[in-house]
Amino acid sequence: MFDATLARTPDAAEVAAMQPQRLVQMLRAQASTIESLRAQIEWFRKQIFGAKSERYAPQPDGVQMHLGEVLPAPALPEAPTREVPAHQRRSARSDFADDAASAPFFDAAKVPVVTIDVPCPEAAGLAPEQYEVIGHKESHRLAQRPGAYVVLKYRRALIKRRDIDNNDGRATLHCAPAPLSVIEGSRADVSFVVATMLDKFQWHLPLYRQHQRLEQAGFKLSRQWLTGLMAQAIALLQPIYDAQLESIRRCRIKTVDETPIKAGRAGPGKMRAGYFWPVYGELDEVCFAYFGSREHRHVHELLGLEQPAGAVLLSDGYGAYEAFAKKTGVVHAQCWTHMRRNFHDALGAAPIEADCALRLIAPVYAVEAEIARRKLHGQAKRLHRLEHAKPHVEGFFAWAQQQFEAQGLLPSNKLTQALAYALQRRAALQVYLQDADVSVDTNHVERAIRPIALGRRNWLF
Question: I need a surface site. Which of 17, 225, 325, 432 has the fewest CB within 10 A?
Fold first, then answer.
């Protein structure tokens, strides 16, 4: 470990008095600190100035144009044409506002269209028999109106039956019952409940903003009422969640991940850290279980200890999933994207070696793209992977083993960590080659997490 006494640079006399072992220890500690600080600076520089995408961009070859070369002029797209008698005429550019223009920018079956009749000024003052309407020209405009809130007023007739005699002089009154609501006794219609949930959880519009919008529209409702309404609506979804989670547990192939979320108060001005654990099934089902921590036991609570025959768990490199696989006997497959990300992060520390790793991984994904393009499934997909992807996978791990044995970098170096991560998970990273139902990565569950990542910036409490 590096201590404070090694942070000061010794003078020549102190160096001469040092034992060789002490000098080597000091140099190694300083080199380790420098490497760690360099990695931190590179990370912060990337966060501020760099691109967040992990898309592979090969290093330039260094060939530069000389001063006299001129870039060729870009080819301009040809203007659209339309056929007219005897010749072709260039189509005028239009925003669909001129007469007789079509309007392909909306789906008329889904979008409400309000028709506004514009009178012809030439027909002003004429009698109907003085002119004839032979057709219409139509133009369209995209318009917006304030929030389309509406109050449903149910008028229920109260009637008195005259044909019934109660023999006691009292009239017999009848009235239809009020329509049932999805939440018993609530003043909210089911359409309002659904729209509020979609605004909050799909479009990330917090309840306090929705409350402000309701107030501006003329409604007198409390924030507490909206919060309670969401809790009641979520309770209605619980049976659907339970049934879907049980369906996922019965799947042979499951993909799981975890992502942090702030939920609940931990103290004055502090929020408690929790975790969503999304689990993805074979039928493209996904459930987001919530647990208060990242402890290993939550994996057992989420997936259960009884697994179907031939079950495979696909995940990243977190040790909780490996421990679960060993305990239950399921096959543990791991994600190539997480492994690849380590080499992408090492580009600043070892650009040549990390770039070589990314070049070796690229054909693995090219094979998957070809499988998707040809829509291969089952045995055909497995054989295609074995024939085309397996040589690239073996070549990559052979290169990684050679680099790990030959390189003299420190353990804290990003490239060393990336190589160690890949080699330790070599067997798990090759599971997908033998099982056509296993994906090469966990990108499908990562995409499912995206709404949570967006919501973290908007949700409150």
Answer: 17
DSSP 192-203: HHHHHHIIIIIS
DSSP state of 177: P
User: Phi, psi (5° rounding) for residue 362?
Assistant: -55, -45
User: Crossing angle for the helix pair 351-374 and 390-406, nearest 10 degrees?
Assistant: 170
Alpha helices in 314-350 (DSSP H): 319-328, 336-345
DSSP assigned state of 121: G
Three-state secondary-structure class, residue 79: coil
Token pair listed for 260: 């942090």
What are the percentages of helix, strand and coil residues in the chain, rounded to 5?
A: 45, 10, 45
Question: Would you list the DSSP string of 366-411?
Answer: HHHHHHHHHT--HHHHHHHIIIIIHHHHHHHHHHHHHHHHH----T
According to DSSP, the β-strands at 253-256 and 312-315 are: parallel
Instruction: Express each pLDDT in 334-365 by its tens digit.
Output: 999 999 999 999 988 888 999 999 999 999 99
- Helix 223-249 to helix 207-216 angle (10° resolution) is 140
* Model pLDDT for residues 267-298, shown as the tens digit of each residue: 888 888 899 999 999 999 999 999 999 999 99
Contact assessment for residue 389 and residue 367, using Cβ atoms and an 8 Å cutoff: yes
The CA distance from 249 to 242, in Å, is 11
Give every CB contact of residue 251 below 8 A, 6+ residues apart in sequence: 281, 282, 283, 308
Rounded Cα distance between 361 and 340, Å, is: 7
